[in-house]
Structures are given as structure tokens and as C-alpha cells.
Specification:
The complex is a heterodimer of chains A (about 350) and B (about 500). Chain A is α+β, with helices and mostly antiparallel strands and about 350 residues long. Chain A folds into 3 domains: about 180 residues, 2-Layer Sandwich (Uridine Diphospho-n-acetylenolpyruvylglucosamine Reductase, domain 3), CATH 3.30.465; about 70 residues, Alpha-Beta Plaits (2-Layer Sandwich), CATH 3.30.70; about 70 residues, Alpha-Beta Plaits (2-Layer Sandwich). Helix content of chain A is about 25%, strand content about 25%. In chain A, the strands form 4 sheets. Chain A has an 8-stranded antiparallel beta sheet. Chain A has a 5-stranded antiparallel beta sheet with strand order 3-4-8-6-7. The longest helix of chain A is centred in the first third of the chain and has 16 residues. Chain A is globular. The two termini of chain A are about 30 Å apart. With about 500 residues, chain B is of the alpha+beta class. In chain B, strands 15-12-14-13-17-18-16 form a 7-stranded antiparallel beta sheet, with helices on both faces. In chain B, helix 9 crosses helix 11, helix 10 crosses helix 12 and helix 14 runs antiparallel to helix 15. The longest helix of chain B has 20 residues. The two termini of chain B are about 25 Å apart. Classes of the chains: A alpha+beta (about 350), B alpha+beta (about 500). At the A-B interface, strand 7, helix 4, strand 9, helix 5 and helix 6 of A face helix 6, strand 9, helix 8, strand 11 and helix 9 of B.
């Protein structure tokens, strides 16, 4: 173990003994997300750097403090990418924060091999637990069923189980070709069409509907992209414009995301009907992700999401005291409390960030 | 391994049977030896143990009552699907109840618009694809026991298949699992909406070998059937060059739908049996498949052929018909039965290694053959580095059995040294408990035990599997794992 890592373990051990709450935070690009937490600042950026990257293995291993932009740049130089297209929400986002937040971008729901969220691409992780021990889960190979899949559990865990020190991520080749198409369409028609297209072998890699316009990104073998464009029609954006467009959706720079109205992230089955709350809306993931700007109460928004078969997260702005995430059922909450107690017996990590009692 | 002399107390057995019969039909509770004998092992037959009782519920409510009863009386519960597993995950407990989920075999719904299917745990893997076929959809993970294995078992093992390089494992294709805790409480993991709130417990439950919850319902993602598929069969004069060719394909940005390798010992073993047309002079044969639209496949086959030739393939053949494509695969799919014909017994290993180590590991395995005096042909999922060395031995000869076990253990240790894992897709079960001691340090193993107790504080669900105790690891070196015989030898295996 090198000095930065052993220092990290030592800090955690001391905090554990003193029962000092810790707030794990690198550059703070995702401070807005989740519930508020407090504690002595633990900045994992001292644990940094690419540990291993062999493009033909389709795996990259990096320390948590590695800038996400640096990792993505290295992949791009080798014709590869992170298939879950994570948002950065700021210039200095780190790999650790990306995994802990577990947020995926436009490519989250698409056909075939590129399908998946952050956890689908996590192969292994090193974690400093609440006793200050460095634990090593999973590995760097594609198939691994030795032991429980704790490394995937860390994706979206909001740092409540420990400090992610290192992570191995499956990467994919950059598609040979991509095209973005635009269609004029109502919300109902767009959700209908997206689900229909997803059931066919088409190289869909992203979709976005807002204000009467549907944007579709095709990506894959050039023959497949060409054939799909021919089949679907639509107006083509030039590639430069298209890249900027999808970046604006991923990073919430699109005008829809401006202003201080609460931003709700409503996840529903992709075929769900139009939401009962009539408010400004932006739809991604073939209909499965519906961003809503509304000042309605949390109860109303959550009830609306529930009626649609999904759940609602208060993503940005508004009063976080209502709880950023949808409450869990009693037996699942009990498992959460026991897991938290196992990994963090002194209850020091990111108290309350995921749920008030964790 | 025969059943140890341990037998359950007759009183305990009698009272459990009486209580179960209070809510289960008589034929759903088995306890006489002739009735429980078929459940004494799973696909790994050298570990055998009679259960105290076998229960065959038909509804979730019956499962709930069974679990409540067992929890109250501290009776271990061992869930079981079709019993095709290869690591002894479903090995019964002498004082336990074996919970067969085979009767929960209904497909509850298929939603072609959402491309999902919701099924009971006892539904066979292939049955889902058959039911979805009329919508031109299928369930992608295809473990080669797919005609018999159940989706509940696939969830327990995180099963793969030959197409998982491109289409993912069970974990990538299951959206939601409904289950019961050992206390009998209903729990939902994941959901039809993405990113279920809270920790991703679904990621823990998939691959947990029945130790965290009993699966009662599974919703899977279906994918559109590809319009066409073609396969390249490429020969190589050197096993290392074949391994480099795999890396070259990936480096060129290609993710083949299937990428499998057989070494010369394996092609010579299967050819007389399968007549696949393999090049028997080649040191290794690579099968490389492309699927998609006809245009896409034509483009990809051309690129793959160019890469393989540049990587020193000595011969290339592209399938020109579906019949020919299936013939190329026939040898690969029949490797296990062929091994069963060529040798009295064989022991299938399941390590995974970084792809770049393929040539090195295969040569090391070849070098071990004289040491143990046993042959070891290799078939494997080259695309994801998952090896299936087949150690051929004679199960009637105790010395041969002991050498096979030692050979297998050395191969697994080699996989760990190479930065890989002792099991890519068959699970730990009871078979690889010792090698878990080599792959993980004690604090990490203790964390696994912590996960187990967070779901099952009483430690009654499939106890003793997957995570070795401190004592077990201390003993490792003296106690050796037992080589396995396969049940269902007629099933192709991967």
C-alpha cells in the first residue's frame, strides 16, 4: 500500500475511533445531489492516478481522485469511451464521485451491448471501510462470480459505505459512426415511437424529447447507422452541432435546466403514459427518465411518479428536507440499516446523504 | 463423496413434516430416503448430502409460510432450481429443508412494447426466449444448460453464456427481482423504472447463490432478435498468436457477438464426435461471430477477417449458411459430452484471466499435464478470458481422482496469480471455498459475511456456501476440493 492510501486508511481509522463524522468530498461538483450531510472534510483527491489501462482488455483501473476528464481523455486517445456517458456537472469531477453518485447520461438506455448504468460497467473496487481497512472486491475481468458483487453496490451508494479508493471499469470501443436525427413530434407520439424502435434491432444510443421535438442519436457500425437513418427518416444534425447538443443534455446546460425551479428526476417504466402533473418536461432514455420543473409539493410529485409506476428524486433546487430520494419499504430499509452497520459500524461516512437514518 | 453418517433427528424431521403438511399438499413434502435421494446433489455430483426434508411449493404464499416456519424453528433452507449448477450451490444441508422452486414455472407476462418478461423462478431459461419469439424478441444470456436451467438459478449464479461479451450477463439483463427474506417478508430489488431508490441491492442478490433471499419472481429485459448471424472459423499455428488475435480484434474496436477458442487437444477430442470440420493441424481454432443487419454483418465480417489474417491466422472460413454456422458451433457446444466419451470422467474448471495472459496460461496448463499425468484440453470464452480447462481422469482410480483435484486447484491458483478469478460463471458453491481463501484477504471475506448477515441475520439461507470461514482457510492446503462429475452429461456445457 502506498503512502496516500495508507494515509487515507489512517484518517478513517482515527475518525472511527473518535466517532467523528466524515464528509467525503473531492471538488464538490455533485454537492447539490442527495440529502445534506455534514462532518469533517475528507478529500480523497490525494489518492489519484490511472493504475492500469490496457485497451485490448476493455478495462481501466483508476484511483478515486483521478479527474474524470483525464480518464475520458485517455480513453478517447485510444478510441474508447465510458459507455454510461456520465455527467460531470463541473470541470473537476473525479472518478470516485462519478461512481459514488452513480449517475449515467444519455446512453444509459440504448440497444444491445451499450445498454447500462454505471453499475453495469463496474468490475472491481477498493474500498476503505469504517474500520479503516482497505477491502478489495471484484477484479479486472469481465466475468467474475467469486463472492457477492459489492463493487457494483458502490455505484450510487453516495459514499455511505466507505471511501472508494480505486475502481476498475469496463470500457467500450467508440462507435464507428454516429448520427443525430430530429423529428417534430408530440410527447405521446414520441414515447410511443421510442418504445417501438427499441424493440427493433436499431442502433439507438440516445433519445431526448422536449417541447415538441424528438432527438435521436444512432451509433454503431456505419452500415447499421446508415440503414437505420434511411429507415427512420428525420432531419440530420451535423456532427459538431450534435455533440454539443448531447453534451448540453448530459451536463444540464440545455435551457430547460436553467432557473431556480425545483428539478425533479422521475424514473418510470419506459412505456408509462404522460405524467399526471402538467409541468415543463424533458424526456430521456426512451421514455424512462422524465425531468420535471415544478414547485408542487414533494408528496404530489412522488404520488405522480408512483402512479406512473416509478419513483421521484428531488435532483436540484428546492427544499431538500423533504428527502431527496423516494423512501424505501420497511424490509428493504432494514437491510440498508444492517448493511450500513456492517460496513460503517461507527456511523461516520456521509451521514444522512442517502437517507436520514443511514 | 458419500453422505456422511450424520442423519437428522427423527423427532425434528417428524415435527417439521407435520407442520409443513398443515399448509402444503402431501405430495409437496418429501422426507423418505427414496424420495429425497434425487435432491442429494446438483450438477456437481461428487458432493452428496440427503436433506432432512424437501418442499415443493407452488405459490409465493406457500414459500412465505415455509420460510416463516423454518425461521421460527431455526431450520436451514437451501433453495434449488433445476439442479444443473456446477459448484454445489444447491447441495442440501443434513438438518435443512431443500426448497425446490421447480413448480413455480409460469411465465406471468410478456410486454413486447416495453421488451420485458415477468416470470416465476422455475421457468427455464430457453422457455423465455421461446415465448418471446413471436414478438421477435429473446432473452440474451444463454448458458449452455439453457434447455434445463431455470431463471431463478441464473439469478443465483449470475449466469453467462457464449454471447455475454456483447449482450452481458444475467446482471445486465434482469431488471427486477421479487423475493422473500428468510423471515418471509416480501422484498423488491430493482424495478421496471431505472435506478431504483437506495443502494443497488439487486446487484448483490444476483450471483448470491441463494444466500440472501429466495427469488419468487423475475422481470427480465428482452432484446430484438438479430436479422442474421455469420461465423468465422480461423486456424492458428501457435496458441499465443491466437490469444494475440483476440486482443487485435478488440483493439480494432470490434465486439464480436461470440468469440470462442478451442486448443488442439480440444479440437481433436470433439471432431470425431461433432464433425464440425475443425482444422486438426492448427494449434488453436477461433470461432468469431457477427450478428445484426445483413449490411452490418457483411461489414463486420470483412473487418474481422482482415484483422485475423493480419494476426497470422493460417486459414479462415466464413459460414455461408445457417447450417454451416451451426456446424462450426457444434464442436464447441459438444466439447463436454465429447470429453465424457473420451475419458471415464472429467473435471471442468472455470477460472477467468485477463485476455492478454491467455497464451501464457494455456502454455502453463500444458506444462502441468506431465506433472499430474493427466490430459487437459481447453475450450473457452476467449472474448472475456473465461477458461474451461477439462481435466480428463479416471474416477474409479483414487490416485487419478486425487491428481485431478490437485491439477484443478493449481489451475485456479494460477488464474488468481495472473490477476483473474477462480470462477467466471459457475459459482463458488462448496467447490471453490478453499480457493476463495487465496483470492480474497480475510477483511474482504469478513465483509462478505457481513453482507450475508445484513440480509439473513440468523444465517439460515444456504449456510456454509461461497464464503469460507476463518477455520476453513486455515485448513486449506490439507483439505483438498473434490473433483466433480457432471450430471446431465447430455447437456452441452460452457
Amino acid at each position: 500500500m502506498d503512502q496516500a492510501l495508507s494515509q487515507l486508511c489512517e484518517t478513517v481509522r482515527a475518525a472511527s475511533e473518535a466517532r467523528t463524522p466524515l464528509l467525503i468530498r473531492a471538488s464538490g461538483t455533485k454537492d447539490f445531489y442527495g440529502n445534506e450531510s455534514s462532518g469533517a472534510l475528507l478529500d480523497p483527491r490525494s489518492v489519484t492516478g490511472i493504475v492500469d489501462y490496457e485497451p485490448t482488455e476493455l478495462v481501466i483501473t483508476a484511483r478515486a481522485g483521478t479527474p474524470l476528464a483525464e480518464l475520458e481523455q485517455l480513453l478517447a486517445e485510444n478510441g474508447q469511451l465510458l459507455a454510461f456517458e456520465p455527467p460531470h456537472f463541473g470541470a473537476n469531477a473525479t472518478v470516485g464521485g462519478c461512481i459514488a453518485a452513480g449517475l449515467a447520461g444519455p446512453r444509459r438506455v440504448s440497444f444491445g451491448p451499450t445498454y447500462g448504468g454505471v453499475r453495469d460497467f463496474v468490475l472491481g473496487a477498493k474500498l476503505v471501510d469504517g474500520r479503516g481497512q482497505l477491502l478489495s472486491f471484484g477484479g479486472t475481468v469481465m466475468k467474475n462470480v467469486a463472492g457477492y458483487d459489492v463493487s457494483r453496490l458502490l455505484a450510487g451508494s453516495m459514499g455511505i459505505l466507505g471511501v472508494i479508493a480505486e475502481v476498475s471499469i469496463k470500457v467500450l470501443p467508440r462507435p464507428m459512426s454516429h448520427r443525430t436525427l430530429c423529428f417534430e413530434m408530440t410527447e405521446t407520439a414520441a414515447v410511443y415511437k421510442l418504445n417501438e424502435w427499441a424493440g427493433r434491432p436499431l442502433p439507438l444510443s440516445a433519445s431526448m424529447w422536449h417541447d415538441g421535438a424528438l432527438y435521436l442519436r444512432l451509433a454503431g457500425a456505419s452500415a447499421a447507422v446508415r440503414a437505420a437513418h434511411h429507415h427512420l427518416g428525420g432531419e440530420e444534425l451535423d456532427n459538431y452541432q450534435a455533440d454539443a447538443f448531447w453534451a448540453s443534455i448530459r451536463e444540464h446546460k440545455h435551457p430547460f435546466f436553467e432557473g431556480d425551479a425545483p428539478l425533479w428526476r422521475i424514473a418510470v417504466p419506459s412505456t408509462a403514459a404522460t405524467l399526471s402533473l402538467v409541468e415543463p418536461q424533458l424526456i430521456e432514455w426512451n421514455g424512462a427518465l422524465r425531468w420535471l420543473r415544478t414547485r408542487q409539493s414533494a408528496e404530489q410529485v412522488r404520488e405522480c411518479a408512483k402512479q406512473a409506476g416509478g419513483h421521484a428524486t428531488l435532483f436540484r433546487n428546492g427544499d431538500r428536507s423533504v428527502g431527496a430520494f423516494t423512501p424505501l419499504t420497511a424490509p428493504v430499509a432494514a437491510i440498508h440499516r444492517r448493511l450500513k452497520a456492517q460496513f460503517d459500524p461507527a456511523n461516520i461516512f456521509n451521514r444522512g446523504r442517502l437517507y436520514p437514518d443511514l | 463423496m458419500d453422505s456422511p453418517p450424520h442423519a437428522p433427528s427423527p423427532d425434528k424431521q417428524r415435527s417439521l413434516v407435520a407442520a409443513l403438511r398443515g399448509f402444503l399438499p402431501g405430495d409437496a413434502v418429501l422426507f423418505r430416503e427414496e424420495e429425497t435421494r434425487p435432491y442429494e446433489c446438483d450438477g456437481l455430483t461428487l458432493f452428496r448430502q440427503l436433506p432432512m426434508v424437501v418442499a415443493l411449493p407452488e405459490t409465493e404464499d406457500q414459500i412465505r409460510r415455509i420460510l416463516q416456519l423454518c425461521h421460527e424453528h431455526k431450520v436451514p433452507v437451501i433453495p434449488r432450481g433445476a439442479g444443473t449448477g456446477l459448484s454445489g450451490s444447491a447441495l442440501p444441508h443434513p438438518d435443512g429443508l431443500l426448497l425446490s422452486l421447480a413448480k413455480l414455472n409460469r411465465i406471468l407476462s410478456i410486454d413486447p412494447r416495453a421488451q420485458t418478461a415477468t416470470v416465476q423462478p422455475g421457468v427455464r431459461n430457453l422457455a423465455i426466449s421461446e415465448a418471446a419469439a413471436r414478438h421477435r424478441l429473446y432473452y440474451a444470456p444463454d448458458p449452455s444448460s439453457q434447455i434445463a436451467c431455470t431463471i431463478g438459478g441464473n439469478v443465483a449464479e449470475n449466469s453467462g453464456g457464449v454471447h455475454c461479451l456483447k449482450y452481458g450477463l444475467t446482471i445486465h439483463n434482469v431488471l427486477r427481482v421479487r423475493g422473500l427474506t428468510i423471515e418471509g417478508e416480501a422484498v423488491e430489488f430493482g424495478g421496471l423504472a431505472p435506478d431504483a431508490p437506495g443502494l443497488d441491492l439487486l446487484a448483490l442478490v444476483i450471483g448470491s447463490e441463494g444466500m440472501l433471499a429466495v427469488v419468487t419472481e423475475v422481470t427480465v429485459r428482452l432484446v430484438p432478435v438479430a436479422q442474421t448471424a455469420r461465423c468465422i472459423m480461423a486456424s492458428f499455428a501457435d496458441i499465443g498468436e491466437a490469444g494475440d488475435a483476440v486482443a487485435a480484434l478488440i483493439a480494432d474496436g470490434i465486439i464480436p457477438a461470440g468469440l470462442e477458442m478451442l486448443d488442439q487437444a480440444a479440437t481433436r477430442l470433439v471432431e470425431p464426435f461433432a464433425n464440425a470440420g475443425y482444422d486438426l493441424d492448427a494449434a488453436a481454432v477461433l470461432l468469431c461471430e457477427s450478428d445484426g443487419t445483413p449490411e452490418e454483418v457483411a461489414e463486420e465480417i470483412e473487418r474481422m477477417s482482415a484483422v485475423l489474417l493480419a494476426a497470422r491466422a493460417t486459414r479462415i472460413q466464413v459460414s455461408n449458411s445457417e447450417a454451416e454456422r451451426l456446424r462450426f458451433w457444434a464442436g464447441r457446444k459438444n466439447a463436454f459430452p465429447a470429453a465424457g466419451r473420451a475419458s471415464p470422467a472429467y473435471y471442468c474448471m472455470d477460472g477467468t484471466i485477463p485476455r492478454r495472459r491467455l497464451g501464457e496460461v494455456l502454455k502453463a496448463i500444458q506444462a502441468l499435464e506431465p506433472k499430474y499425468g493427466l490430459r487437459c484440453p481447453n475450450v473457452f470464452h476467449a472474448g472475456d478470458g473465461n477458461l474451461h480447462p477439462l481435466i480428463l481422469f479416471d474416477d474409479a482410480d483414487p490416485d487419478s481422482v486425487a491428481r485431478a483435484e490437485a491439477f484443478g486447484a493449481e489451475i485456479l491458483e494460477l488464474c488468481v496469480q495472473m490477476g483473474g478469478t477462480v470462477t467466471g460463471e459457475h459459482g463458488v458453491g462448496v467447490e471453490k471455498l478453499d480457493q476463495m481463501c487465496s483470492q480474497f484477504d480475510r477483511p474482504t471475506l469478513d465483509a462478505f459475511l457481513g453482507v450475508k448477515s445484513a440480509f439473513d441475520p440468523a444465517g439460515l439461507l444456504n449456510p456454509g456456501k461461497v464464503v469460507p470461514t476463518l477455520h476453513r482457510c486455515a485448513e486449506y492446503g490439507r483439505i483438498r476440493v473434490h473433483g466433480g462429475n457432471l450430471r446431465f452429461p447430455e447437456l452441452p456445457r460452457f
